[in-house]
Amino acid sequence: MSHISDDSSTTKIITDINVTPMVDIMLVLLIIFMVTATYITRQAIDVNLPEAKTGEEVSTTTLGLVVAADGSLFLNGERVTLEELEAKTKALAKENPELQAVVDGDKSVSYGRVMEVIDTLRSAGVKNFAAAVEFKED
At residue 59, does pLDDT exceed 60? Predict the structure, then answer.
């Protein structure tokens, strides 16, 4: 145990716990869980993406929207209706005018359904879009 001595020649025992290292570890764990949660959510929804030779990685995605094979919608991993999508997106677009949406549309979903979703996003204030594809090998 550590001891502190003062001018009066008495010794006091330090009984406080230093929590700084524990807080550092907890913050690192929080960051790791936040990063891996996005990958787990994306893999949990089974979507058969179309392939394209010109596909690129998207570095920052504010909104992740999945249109599943049955036409159901998932906003950042949460199942939503078209009306809920519009309401939630309007609120997010007010907070961030540079809001970007990446649409993962299953290739078996009709073009009309995907356009309906994009039209809903545009009317809610989202101006930047990207379509998610899998890279096609030559």
Answer: no
pLDDT at residue 49, as a whole number: 63
The secondary structure of the chain, three-state, reads: CCEEECCCCCEEECCCCCCHHHHHHHHHHHHHHHHHHHHHHHHHCCCCCCEECCCCCCCCCCEEEEECCCCCEEECCEEECHHHHHHHHHHHHHHCCCCEEEEEECCCCCHHHHHHHHHHHHHHCCCEEEECCEECCC
47-135, what's its fold?
Nucleotidyltransferase; domain 5 (3.30.420)
Query: Where in the chain are the domains?
Result: 47-135
pLDDT-derived band at 97 (thresholds 50, 70, 90) equals: confident
